[in-house]
């Protein structure tokens, strides 16, 4: 009689790459090819390809590079700011795709680096601050976002304590970006989280960290409009109303489900404006297809967004423009308007 042992599920390519990035971000010696292959349960050749694919992605989106100090060993190169920008993306992805990897690969290595981070204390403090802020901010911090914020601030604490001599000082946002962040309702919460995370800081470093924490809170926000929304969000909805008006004029179409459309656009444009203001790139595999099939739709969308771009002092890149165009295209098709090849 034999007992069948359940097979260990094979990791997907995205899960393997998340593990690679978690290892590269943690304070240890360069990541060895053999160790990486063992953790991901794949051959060295597969691991080498994962490294190449991830290196291509982070070079394009985050200005970081994976280097090899010795053959078959890998480490991450880049500034404090670019590392944090990159970690926002990869930590959120890892918490979604391989949360066990975060708990077994990322957090233990941060904990063994220094003894100044009390996980229980900081978890309680940060969660209390987030809970207390939900009502005045009119937003809910999900369990996923709470985990992300806690782990990200843990990394920032490590980075502040141990990496400055290697990677320089934290990037200071441009004056226009600072103004944008410091006018946000989340800025007061960011100041509290900064004190809880770092303790006493010099004046300039405290300001920089508050700006960056406000940026984090903005990037992970899910936008949902309500009549009681802050003034900045009411202003955005006013701009979206004008965008819809412009599309209706340019296409000669009246949207019969306008309320649903404006809510959809608000949810997208709130996040898109943040990405544009801080030059965060996105990948849009549909861009080439939409450019070929619906050039007129893209042109109409670009024209309709001109006033919004001027109001916020930005230029919406083609990848973001395409997503807005797709939303309008879906509504126009319902009205029987889009007929392009």
Strand order of the largest sheet: 1-3-2
DSSP strand content:
under 5%
Number of strands: 3
Which class of secondary structure composition applies to the elements?
Answer: mainly alpha
Which series of helices and strands comes N to C? HEHHEEHHHHHHHHHHHHHH
Low-confidence stretches are none
Helix content: 55-70%
Instruction: Give the helix tally.
Output: 17
- How many structurally independent domains? 3
Mean pLDDT: 90
Largest sheet composition: 3 strands, antiparallel
C-alpha-based Rg, rounded: 23 Å
Shape: globular
CA distance, first residue to last residue: 65 Å
What labels describe this entry?
PRD_sf, 17 helices, 3 domains, three-stranded antiparallel β-sheet, single chain, Arc Repressor Mutant, subunit A, PRD, 341 residues, BglG_antiterminators, mainly alpha, 3% strand
Reconstruct the topology from this structure:
Layout: H1 13-25, E1 31-32, H2 33-40, H3 44-62, E2 65-67, E3 73-77, H4 80-97, H5 99-113, H6 119-137, H7 143-162, H8 164-167, H9 175-182, H10 186-198, H11 203-219, H12 231-251, H13 258-277, H14 287-293, H15 295-304, H16 306-312, H17 318-334
Antiparallel strand pairs: 1-3, 2-3
Please describe what this structure looks like:
- The structure is a single chain.
- A 3-stranded antiparallel sheet has the order 1-3-2.
- The protein has 17 helices and 3 strands.
- It is globular.
- The longest helix has 21 residues.
- The mean pLDDT is 90.
- With 341 residues, it is an all-alpha fold.
- Keywords: Repeat.
- This is BglG family transcriptional antiterminator.
- It comes from Enterobacillus tribolii.
- One of its GO terms (biological process) is regulation of DNA-templated transcription.
């Amino acid at each position: 009689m034999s007992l069948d042992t359940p097979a260990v599920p094979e990791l997907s390519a995205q899960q393997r790459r998340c593990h690679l990035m978690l290892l590269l971000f943690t304070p240890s010696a360069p990541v060895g090819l053999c160790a990486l292959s063992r953790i991901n349960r794949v051959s060295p050749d597969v691991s080498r390809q994962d490294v190449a694919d991830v290196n291509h992605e982070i070079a394009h989106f985050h200005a970081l590079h994976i280097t090899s100090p010795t053959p078959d060993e890998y480490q991450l190169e880049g500034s404090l700011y670019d590392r944090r920008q990159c970690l926002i993306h990869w930590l959120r992805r890892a918490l979604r795709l391989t949360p066990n990897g975060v708990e077994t690969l990322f957090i233990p290595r941060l904990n063994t680096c220094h003894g100044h981070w009390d996980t229980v204390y900081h978890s309680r403090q940060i969660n209390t601050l987030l809970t207390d802020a939900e009502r005045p901010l009119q937003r809910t911090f999900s369990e996923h976002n709470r985990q992300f914020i806690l782990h990200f601030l843990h990394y920032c604490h490590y980075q502040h304590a141990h990496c400055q001599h290697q990677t320089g000082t934290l990037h200071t946002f441009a004056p226009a970006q600072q103004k944008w962040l410091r006018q946000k309702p989340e800025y007061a919460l960011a100041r509290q989280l900064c004190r809880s995370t770092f303790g006493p800081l010099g004046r300039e470093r405290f300001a920089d960290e508050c700006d960056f924490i406000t940026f984090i809170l903005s990037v992970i926000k899910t936008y949902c409009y309500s009549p009681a929304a802050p003034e900045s969000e009411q202003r955005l909805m006013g701009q979206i109303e004008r965008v819809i008006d412009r599309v209706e004029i340019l296409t000669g179409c009246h949207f019969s489900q306008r309320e649903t459309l404006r809510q959809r656009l608000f949810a997208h444009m709130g996040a898109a404006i943040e990405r544009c203001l801080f030059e965060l790139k996105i990948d849009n595999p549909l861009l080439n297809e939409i450019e070929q099939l619906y050039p007129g739709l893209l042109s109409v969308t670009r024209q309709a967004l001109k006033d919004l771009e001027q109001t916020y002092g930005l230029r919406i890149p083609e990848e973001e423009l395409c997503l807005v165009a797709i939303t309008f295209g879906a509504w126009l098709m319902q009205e029987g308007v889009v007929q392009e090849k």
